[in-house]
Specification:
single chain, 346 residues, alpha/beta, 7-stranded mixed sheet, 6-stranded parallel sheet, 17 strands, binds NADP nicotinamide-adenine-dinucleotide phosphate
């Protein structure tokens, strides 16, 4: 099969499109014919550049921390998946042989694309327990993007912030991946009042197009003043920030109202940000960081996407052979939304 292989860390050119042996699914595993795999700033681009050593990748490596496609072979002792099933997989999963539902497994775990071969390939074998069925009316490209960001946003808003119907949430980075998804979950799934904030008019407008009730450009406006105008001086119940922009977050923090919650799973523009502690205690604010997701949410996330409540933003779909170009685009911070690699396109 064809796959992208990293033999050494470095610029995008180190991503080699080459022939490698087809993976053979082991006991408890399925093999997926990949139709989509997403390109991510941290887990793919930063890993390829050699900045994610602490995650323990071992070269040569087929990257790609998620995939969506069709089951094309099943290993021994797998009965819950059949050849032809539509399936997606992502994230942390068993590295060694396990039962098809993962029960009783206490061996090492790790992410596909980092600790085991990933989705930047025509075929990938994953533990059957890591697969999630894709609803019929959801295409592979969107399914792969859903697996990447929707569960994290879902976890942050539903479980960590415990955002309620009718509460007000301020979503930072409205044009970004977690931001654009957060807006839709907050509005279409939870029924909250949503303020979308971003560093350009274009991205703030995108937030409104995605369903936000209000949009703020924090590059041209004071985000605290704007939120106070919108909320009548009350402030927001939840601040959803996954950026940690040191110029903006301290101002947005002061726009959190009584018993407010700040939730985060990212800090790529920080990580150090100054916080007004007097506002923190006067308003009885809780700050919670929680990366990752709750696996039992995955089917709900895919279903929300299939129902059109969450529409993942896809910037471009490229053939797998253009993985290096995709990395360059992500590094250049071009466009809005995800770049998806589709090995069926070449
Ligand atoms: N499992 C997890 O816990 C998980 C999953 C996904 C993501 N994350 C983390 O969450 C964060 C957001 O991920 P994402 O995919 O949503 O990010 P993204 O779409 O690449 O970026 C989000 C926003 O950040 C702002 N931004 C980007 N680069 C910046 C820079 N150099 N300086 C200042 N602002 C910048 C931009 O917004 P404006 O310019 O409009 O402000 C952009 O729209 C990342 O740190 C990522 O590692 C964690």
């Amino acid at each position: 099969m064809k796959a992208i292989v990293i033999h050494e860390y470095g610029p995008p050119d180190v991503l080699r499109y080459e022939d490698v042996p087809d993976p053979v699914p082991r006991q408890g595993e399925v093999r997926i014919k990949v139709h989509a795999a997403t390109v991510n700033r941290v887990l793919d681009v930063s890993l390829r550049a050699g900045r994610e050593q602490y995650r323990g990748p071992v070269l040569p490596l087929i990257p790609g921390v998620d995939c969506a496609g069709i089951v094309d072979a099943v290993g021994p002792h797998v009965s819950r998946w059949r050849v032809g099933d539509r399936v997606s997989a992502a994230g942390i999963m068993p590295l060694q042989i396990c039962t098809e539902d993962g029960s009783g497994y206490d061996g090492p775990q790790g992410m596909m694309g980092i600790k085991r071969p990933g989705g930047f390939a025509e075929l990938v074998a994953v533990p059957a327990c890591a697969g999630v069925a894709i609803p019929q009316n959801l295409d592979f490209h969107r399914a792969a993007v859903v697996m990447r960001h929707v569960p994290t946003a879902w976890n942050l808003l539903m479980h960590v912030a415990e955002l309620k119907y009718g509460e007000t949430v301020l979503i930072m980075g409205a044009g970004g991946n977690l931001g654009s998804i957060g807006i839709q979950i907050a509005k279409n799934v939870i029924g909250a009042r949503v303020i979308a904030a971003a560093g350009s008019d274009e991205r703030a407008t995108l937030g409104k197009k995605l369903g936000a009730d209000h949009g703020i450009n924090y590059a041209t406006h004071n985000i605290y003043d704007e939120v106070m105008k919108i909320t009548g001086g009350k402030g927001v119940d939840v601040l959803y920030d996954n950026i940690a922009n040191p110029a903006v977050l301290p101002v947005a923090f002061r726009a959190i109202g009584m018993d407010g919650r700040l939730v985060t799973a990212g800090a790529h523009a920080g990580p150090n940000v100054s916080i007004d502690f007097s506002h923190l205690y006067h308003k009885r604010i809780t700050i919670k960081g929680r990366p990752g997701y709750t696996p039992s949410d995955l089917p709900h996330c895919l279903e929300a996407a299939a129902e059109g409540k969450v529409i993942p933003q896809i910037e471009r779909v490229l053939p797998l052979s253009r993985a290096a170009d995709a990395h360059r685009m992500v590094e250049a911070h071009e466009g809005q939304g995800k770049i998806v690699l589709d090995p069926t396109l070449g």
